[in-house]
Amino acid sequence: MLRAHTVDQVRAAEAALMTTLPEGTLMQRAAHGLAYAVLDFLGGRGYGRRVLLLVGSGDNGGDALHAGVVLARRGVQVEAWLLGESTHDALAAFRAAGGRVGRPRGGRDFDVVVDGIVGIGGRPGLRSAAQEALAAVADVSVVAVDTPSGVGVDTGEIHGPHVHADLTVTFGTHKACHLLDPAAAASGAIHLVDIGLTLPPAQVEALQAADVASLVPRPEPDAHKYTRGVVGVRAGSAAYPGAALLSVAGASCGLAGMVRFVGDPTVADRVRDHHPEVVGAGRVQAWVVGSGADADAEAMLRAALEDDVPVVVDADALRHVDGPVGVPAVLTPHAGELAAMLDVERSEVEAAPLAHARSAAREYDAVVLLKGRRTTIARPDGLVRVTTTGTPWLATAGAGDVLGGLIGALLAAGLDPFDAASVGAWLHGAAATLASGGGPVVASDVATALPRVVATLPAP
Ligand SMILES: NC(=O)C1=CN([C@@H]2O[C@H](COP(=O)(O)OP(=O)(O)OC[C@H]3O[C@@H](n4cnc5c(N)ncnc54)[C@H](OP(=O)(O)O)[C@@H]3O)[C@@H](O)[C@H]2O)[C@@H](O)CC1
Ligand SMILES: [K+]
User: What are phi and psi of 357, to 5 degrees?
Assistant: First the structure.
């Protein structure tokens, strides 16, 4: 599991560890990890390379200067542009190692810029000196120290100018800004340096392949179709039959023992043509409701809720949810649908997905899966999982219908709503990447790739 801790949690862990170590040890650990990550970024070769450090007045700037010492010893020509009103004590060591200080001429001549302007002590936005420095080196790759300066570290939000990093080297643990958009998009690749912190449970996490492998339901040796769970789909309409087909395609990933479809008779015929193994009405362990349901959405939702089993509420059915639905539920809105549920603007949801997913989970007492580049899944108690699998090609019609069906299959197989939603989103993203192979995909390709993704998970 990849975990993101808050600034307060990191500060507390740092304070506890510092009492057991000689002064400066943690910063040296951070700075060495940073320096070697910069060398890797430069292709492993130090001699003849030029690195510019942008140095703020806090410990983030101190990390950059100490890393500059290590880089200088490896033959890198290092220069520091000091941006704060005061400068970290590390400046003396930096000068002693041969580091140059000043406002450089010819910004384009550097191989990389190290952003040590602010880290976890920074307020969102950047002061004018930092903005001016960044503008002077706008074409050079950036390695950010701990966080891309200027972003909201705990919120993942962006309020004003900030650094766009190619790589962020962070210390001790991830922070929300590395995982959640829009800040994650400004973080680039993330490299975590272990500095020995002991941390409490995190409130933001991201499943990794090994976590998915241990959560994904697998049949017992004596399993039969009913013990594996039956998932029911109520979706589609005469106007939107394809949504039903795709919802059923996701549910037919093979992770539940059987799939039922209940809906418009002509749509049901088409579902059976495409998926001969799908059967009609009967008992289920979970329902998936809403994709392409159009005017039938409300009736479909009411009918599903009568069975008192967990439910995935998607698309058109979301409009008919006005509070807790009374059964364990996964609500799967995109930003526009979540905006309508919370009575805010879509742009507000996009600017603060973490805050809005959490607030909807609390208000609707359900797991809320907010679709996006980094699909964000919130539980009513505030725990959040972010999905790091996927490809931009996944932004395609019908992909959400497949996801809803897949989550329904995982619910029917016995996962709780939070695990079902987060495992489903991870598998869905991984299937899209597999099906894409770097090129375009359509939603049915994603559904087809799901069993192969499950088959290639690491051994649990
Ligand atoms: N904790 C750990 O485990 C470890 C932490 N480590 C490192 O310490 C870093 C945290 O250092 P930190 O606490 O000194 O704060 P930091 O991020 O340098 O920023 C504060 C300074 O920035 C300024 N400033 C603020 N906002 C600004 C803005 N928008 N634009 C411009 N300037 C702004 C503010 O100035 P002031 O407002 O006081 O004038 C203040 O001086 C952390 O990210 C990591 O790199 C590692 O070495 C070891 C392990
Ligand atoms: K930084």
Answer: -65, -45
pTM above 0.90, yes or no: yes
Distance, in Å, from the CA atom of 302 to the CA atom of 296, rounded to the nearest integer, reads 10
Closest CA to 3 of 204, 209, 178: 204
Q: Could you tell me the domains of the chain?
A: 2-206 (3.40.50.10260), 209-455 (3.40.1190.20)
300-316 pLDDT tens trace: 999 999 999 999 999 99
Rounded distance from Cα 98 to ligand 2 centre (Å): 23
Which residue type is seen at 89?
D
Residue 107: per-residue pLDDT? 66
Is residue 243 part of an annotated ligand binding site? yes
> Which ligand sits nearest to residue 63's alpha carbon?
1
Probe residue for ligand 1, chosen from 57, 197, 198 as the CB with the greatest number of ligand atoms within 8 Å: 57
Task: Find the ligand nearest to 114 CA.
Answer: 2
What is the CA(199)–ligand 2 centre distance, in A?
22
Ligand 1 site residues, Cβ closer than 6 angstroms: 10-11, 14, 26-27, 30, 56-61, 63, 84, 117-123, 125-127, 130, 145-146, 171-172, 195
Relative to beta strand 376-378, strand 367-370 is antiparallel
